[in-house]
Design a protein that fits this description.
Number of helices: 8
Distance between the termini: 67 Å
Number of strands: 2
Shape: elongated
Strand content: 5-15%
Structural class: mainly alpha
Number of domains: 2
Length: 148
Amino acid sequence: MSRKINGYLDWTQDAKTRMRGLFTDTDLSDGIFAERYWHIAGLHVASAYGTRIINQEVDHQDARLASAIETLRQWQELGERPGALLTLDTNAFLQFRPYYELPWTVLAGTDRVRLVLTMPVLDEIEAKKQGTEPAAEEAGSQDPPAPG
């Protein structure tokens, strides 16, 4: 049993190290150290249910990581679509003309562009909208025209 426990604990450390080398967001690697991990880490070698809880945790982690892989595949498909990727920062929304009025294809020197908004930018815009700053009021009023 100790070999199985140690094998699992070694895998968790290796997986954490590899994931942290690949992703800046630590949610995926932190999920390895859920409640079952601590039960397994504290198991007595002679535990009657050790194999069962380790197998349950391995199945859980397998499903969780398979879901993450599928999400990454979907993101990869999005990334492979045609068009130049332009990542906008918060200032593009708060200090310049409304984004929908800018000639993005001319600015990028291409016939097709894709505008990318990152979560930190969306969070900053939301924070500004909820604040009392004049820029926050402008950000809230710069909605694109309704499709006609």
